[in-house]
Amino acid sequence: MPLKLTLKPNEKVLIGTSVIANGPNKTEFVVLNRVPVVRQKDIITEEDADTIAKKLYVTILNMYINPAQEKDYHGIYFLLMRQMILMPIDAKAIDMMVEMSQRILEGDHYRALKLCRQLIKLETEALKNVEG
C-alpha cells in the first residue's frame, strides 16, 4: 500500500537508510514500495537517548532502518529490557513492553516504536514520582 507523505518546509524524513531534506516549500510525495520511513520528529539520536526507554527506542529504530542487521541489536534490546523491568514502573508499562517485544518478533518495528514512545512517557512519569 503506497504511503503519502507531506513534508513541511525544511522538514527531514528518513526513507530506508537515506535522509531526505525538504526545501523551503511544502512537498507531497508517495512512497510506492515497503521501506522504513521515519519523520524527523520521530527520531531520537543516541546522543539524546538519556534514559533506558529512549535507548530502547534508538535500538528499535536501528532494527527498523537496518533490517539486515536487526539481530545485531537483539542483545542490546534484551539488556535494556532487563534494566527497564528493574525500574519502579507499573503493570501498564510491563504490558506495553510485552506487546512491544511481540511486535518486534512479528517484524512490525514501526508499531514497536509507537509503543516505545508511550513507554518513554510512562518512564518520565515514574522518574518524576521517584524524584518528587
Characterization of this structure:
The protein is built from 4 helices and 5 strands. The chain has 132 residues and is of the alpha+beta class. It folds into 2 domains: 3-41, no CATH class; 44-131. It is globular and about 45 Å long. It has helices at 52-65, 74-85, 91-105, 109-131, and strands spanning 3-7, 12-15, 18-21, 27-31, 37-39.
Could you write a compact summary of the structure shown?
By secondary structure, this protein is α+β, with helices and mostly antiparallel strands.
Radius of gyration based on Cα positions: 16 Å
Could you tell me the number of beta strands?
5
Structural category is: alpha+beta
How are the strands of the largest sheet arranged? 3-2-5
Question: Mean of the pLDDT scores?
Answer: 92
Query: What percent strand?
Result: 15-25%
Give the % helix: 40-55%
Shape descriptor reads globular
What separation lies between the terminal Cα atoms?
47 Å
**Elements, N to C (H/E):** EEEEEHHHH
Major sheet size, sense and barrel closure: 3 strands, antiparallel
Total of helices: 4
- Low-confidence runs of at least 5 consecutive residues: none
Tell me the count of domains.
2
